[in-house]
Amino acid sequence: ELQAYVIKMFKQTFSLTWVLASISGLIALFVLINMVSVMTIDRRHEMIQLFTLGAQKHHIRQFVYAHTLWIGVISLIISLCVGAGLSFIILKLLTPGYFGWVIPYRIPYQPISFLMGAMVSIIVGTGWFAYRYVWYQISHYGSVYESLKIHYFSR
User: What gap in Å lies between CA 125 and CA 109, rounded to an integer?
Assistant: First the structure.
């Protein structure tokens, strides 16, 4: 009876852990979306100047996607390393020291692959929306004039 109670408490604790991990993952994705959007909006004048100097539509798209994928790949690598390190510390160092239990270290490939797929799709979607915003800005002739005026005559 005591063992059943302890197992029930562990399941509740781990379900709460998954809820907290999901919330922190959503917050991280919103931060990633915000970072890519701000980066693209901030570099809008540079992209307009590239277009003025002869860059074509696909060059601007490659520029935006390269920056978006670079930020996404770096954040994926860092999150995987930090997550693996923290789980190793908790399972191999803290749990045996405080509770006397040894829990095997397993890598849950299915949730990790699902979260990586979701992150890649969000990165690509964010890149597309950022590109559409920049291309809308480029396609209006007044923005090219404003970009050149800001860059060359405001110093």
Answer: 24
